[in-house]
Amino acid sequence: MLIGFVVLYLVVSIGIGLLAAKRVHNTADFMTTGRQLSLPVVVGVVFATWFGAETVLGIPGTFYQENLGGLISDPFGAALCLVLFGLIFARRLYRMNLLTLGDFYRQRFNRKVEIIAAIAITLSYLGWVAAQITALGMVFNVLTQGAISEPLGILIGASVVLLYTVVGGMWSVAMTTFFQMIVIVVGLTIIAFMLGNMAGGIAPVVEHAKAAGKFEFWPALNTAAILAFITGLLTLGFGSIPQQDVFQRANSSRTENIAVWGSVLGGVMYLLFAAIPLFIAYSATVIDPALVARLIHGDADKIMMQLIQNHLPLWAQVIFYGSLMAVIMSTASGTLLAPSVTIAENLLKGWIAPNGMSDQAFLRLTRWVIVGFALAVTGYSLWEHAGNTSIHNMVENAYKVTLVVAFVPLFAGLFWRRANLTGAYWSMGLGLVVWLPLEFLLINPTVPAQFYGFAASIAGMVLGSLISRRVSI
User: Fold this and answer.
1) Separation of alpha carbons 189 and 370, rounded Å
2) How far apart are CA 397 and CA 324, in angstroms?
3) pLDDT per residue over 74-133, tens digit each?
4) How many helices (H) and strands (E) does the chain have?
5) Ramachandran region of residue 145, left (φ > 0), alpha (ψ -120 to 50) or beta?
6) Domains in the chain, CATH or no CATH each
7) Under 8 Å between Cβ of 62 and 392
8) pTM for the predicted model, two decimal places
9) Cβ atoms within 10 Å of 13's Cβ, excluding its own
10) Residue 75: is the preceding peptide bond cis (ω within 30°)?
């Protein structure tokens, strides 16, 4: 019966997506909804896109194994990204009337910078989308008590998300995500109250976490620990700003004020509501400590699902799994569309048709790219699953490349008049050259490799821009 309700939810979500697809008449509709989204919808879409598998399953798993400081990248860095994007970047980018964020790099610098940035942005999505697809596989596996293996669940989940994303684009993503936001908020709140009552209230769970040192947040007072803490914040806080999904939601807004406050309010809502999955998962330490002891070292991401299945009635399980599916699908659809649009607009369009392409031909190209990227992500998900990478780490690793390659040229290009083409080349080149070898050579580094890459990217932009300006004078 539980599986039947979950299948019904999937059918309803697909139906909403297909109905929304009727509004797609051209590429602008497909990519930005023709800039028609209201503030409540933008807030809901921003929140639900970011409130993904890592928030419900990955973050609690990391919290179990570490403490609150281990979550500095997500949710703290992720929420910082959305607030900063809204307050600092959204208004200027909205006024430029771009189709993708990659278009900014071409207009501000040149075609080569656009290609480099687009590749970096696209690569960063592999980990994020893979985390969602992997979580779907995990859900199907737990729901069927192993009858559906996780790899098969990954294939099923990827197929469902692909279906309505490829048909309706941003309209389908927006409408299904807004519906899923309502399911997420209502469903997880109900589950939190039920488990809180089973644990004897909120206080016993909080006291247990406090006694276990889980509320420790600030790093040790030494240089390496402080730099590692700052890097965790920067990786998502800055590294996820040059992302197509963040830009796409703001750019789909009806007005620039909606673009600003939709991002800010979505980020605040994300940070506040991320506490609920933490409470739900950690209540297991009071309700079923044996379950936690069995799963914490190998399958911490599954603690919440096992807790729900073992201790709540069927109707509550239906609510939880409906919420969980909403969480995962809302993020998966948005993060599948965003890189596909970037590939089509910033990498393939100019190469396939240098003299221009009709709108309908470009729309067909974009849909084929979505299919291709979905296949690539599914393969990557299966590979990461075989390597037993945690959901939280998949997401955290996704933004390293955009932090060291794309963020500084975006910021400098918008806010520093002296930033020029040479500075962009130096920034991207030095960031990549410094970060990439360290990423593979350093084993358990005290300071993450992307910190050095980010510092090199800043230095490259400043030195390259100033030196080339002096030579030209």
Assistant:
1) 34
2) 23
3) 899 999 999 999 999 999 999 999 989 999 999 999 999 999 999 999 988 887 788 788
4) 26, 0
5) left
6) 2-388 (1.20.1730.10)
7) yes
8) 0.86
9) 27
10) yes
